[in-house]
Design a protein that fits this description.
Blueprint: H1 10-42, E1 47-49, E2 67-75, E3 81-89, H2 93-106, E4 110-113, E5 118-123, E6 128-136, E7 144-151
Antiparallel strand pairs: 1-2, 2-3, 3-7, 4-5, 5-6, 6-7
């Protein structure tokens, strides 16, 4: 004999309704916080799209045969600029990271590496900070996804002092 399923309790609907409204409220709060974070991040200036790699400063070191996906810069309140460039390089990330580190060092950057594809460099003469993240591009074999961020008129990071 199959045991009878107890009838639904009226409190279950209220709990489901409360959980639904709670999830909606949490989502709206996260969207609001993301909007405030974006406002604070870009409040010092205006974001602009860069049309081609030739418009980027030469200090922004890119790999050979770089294929840009997104390039923007933000005019900062201190008069500096923050460039953000994303794209791909036709080189395996395990090979590209040491090559990139050498290019930055030969261009005058003091470079730190975490050993996992994340590089950070500082140019003491020009007060510029560069962050490079190199990851494996899952859509193409032996291709790296590269994200580079260059900040001009930057303060010396704590790990470079």
């Amino acid at each position: 004999m199959i045991p009878a399923v107890p009838p639904p309790r009226p409190g279950g609907r209220r709990l489901l309704l409360a959980l639904s409204f709670g999830a909606i409220a949490l989502t709206l709060l996260l969207v609001l916080l993301a909007g405030i974070g974006g406002f604070v991040l870009f409040s010092g200036g205006q974001a602009k799209v860069v049309g081609s790699t030739s418009e980027l400063p030469r200090e922004l070191t890119l790999c050979d045969h770089f294929q840009p996906a997104r390039m923007v810069y933000v005019e900062q309140a201190n008069g500096g600029r923050r460039y953000h460039v994303e794209g791909t390089c036709p080189v395996n990330p395990l090979i590209l990271a040491p090559i990139y580190m050498g290019k930055l060092a030969s261009a005058g950057w003091t470079v730190h590496s975490d050993g996992g594809g994340s590089l950070e460099g500082f140019d003491y003469q020009k007060s510029q900070l560069i962050d490079v993240l190199i990851t494996d591009d899952s859509s193409e074999p032996n291709t790296s996804t590269v994200a580079v961020e260059l900040s001009t008129k930057a303060d010396v990071p704590p790990d470079f002092q």
